[in-house]
Every structure is written in structure tokens, then in C-alpha cells.
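Customer escalation, tier 2.

The customer says the design service returned an amino acid string that "doesn't look like it belongs to this structure." They asked us to rerun it and document both sides in this ticket. The original C-alpha cells are below, unchanged.
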């Protein structure tokens, strides 16, 4: 059986904003960083599998990734049956002309990060979605909350996206 070594998800935002002033130019320096360390296991701040892929959807196409019934295989060929999601990272390719929509599977949808089975997040070309829930509960995956829908927002061209899921079997 595979296991993960200590992993990290880093979110780092740096920026400077200037304003207009009579005697001096006001300046705001932003330095924000969150570092999520994920150890091997099933509790808080832990995961025991990482699933990753780069996928392409044709114009107007969608797919519902079944995270619970062994439909997906990890990088070593082992099928996955997740019970919790600790992190989801989805990056839309910058060359896309359409948005990548995540969520909204309806029946059997993973609802925790989205609110309901019909809610989704649109990721514009070159954008990224990062959802982290390091608690012991994570985002629940079970027989009625198991589908993560990913869709192409329009019928003009295909879209490509990269996906990484840290989970617990």
C-alpha cells in the first residue's frame, strides 16, 4: 500500500499598492502566507493519498469524477475509494478560451465546499481554485456525496485543467 510523506500546500500573496498624496505617496505592502503541512494519516492535517491528473474536456463537455467507488486510480495504479477530501487544487490552462466549472453535479454531488449539489465555481483561463480543509473531518465523501463535476463552460473550444486531490481512504 502506498503512503504519502509530509506534503505542503503553500499560499503566498505579495503585493504593493500606491496612492496619491500631497507630501508623500502612501504605500501599502501586502505579505500574506499560509502553509498547510499534511502528514500521512487520517486525522487532522493528514491525508493518505494524493490523486493528480491533467485532463481535457471537449467543447460543452463535462465529467463527474467519482471519488468513492474506485473509478479513479492513483499514479501507481491503485484504485481510490475516498472517504474525505483534505484539499482540492484545480488550475485552468492559460490557453483555454472557456471557463472550467467545478461543482454542480446535482445528485450525489460533493456539496461541502460548494453549498449545494447545483453550486459551482467558474475558473477562468489561467486561474486556480484552492480549497483546503485540514480538519479531521475534511470534506465528506460517501455514497451520496461522491461526484465532483468538472465542465467546460461553452461550446466553442475544449478546455484543459490540472487537478490535485489530497484525500483519506
Amino acid at each position: 500500500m502506498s503512503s504519502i510523506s509530509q506534503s505542503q500546500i503553500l499560499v503566498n500573496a505579495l503585493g504593493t499598492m500606491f496612492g496619491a498624496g500631497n507630501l508623500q505617496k502612501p504605500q501599502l505592502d501586502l505579505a500574506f502566507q499560509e502553509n498547510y503541512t499534511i502528514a500521512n494519516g487520517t486525522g487532522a492535517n493528514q491525508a493518505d493519498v494524493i490523486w493528480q491528473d491533467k485532463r481535457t474536456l471537449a467543447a460543452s463537455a463535462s465529467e463527474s469524477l467519482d471519488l468513492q467507488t474506485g473509478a479513479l486510480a492513483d499514479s501507481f495504479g491503485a484504485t481510490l475509494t475516498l472517504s474525505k477530501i483534505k484539499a482540492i487544487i484545480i488550475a485552468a490552462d492559460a490557453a483555454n478560451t472557456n471557463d472550467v466549472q467545478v461543482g454542480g453535479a446535482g445528485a450525489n454531488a460533493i456539496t461541502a465546499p460548494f453549498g449545494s449539489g447545483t453550486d459551482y465555481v467558474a475558473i477562468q483561463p489561467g486561474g486556480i481554485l484552492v480549497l483546503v480543509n485540514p480538519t479531521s473531518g475534511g470534506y465528506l465523501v460517501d455514497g451520496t456525496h461522491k461526484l465532483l463535476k468538472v465542465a467546460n463552460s461553452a461550446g466553442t473550444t475544449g478546455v484543459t485543467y490540472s487537478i490535485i486531490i489530497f484525500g483519506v481512504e
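Tier 2 assessment: The sequence is consistent with the input. The radius of gyration is 18 Å. The longest strand covers residues 27-40. Sent an explanation to the customer and offered a walkthrough call.
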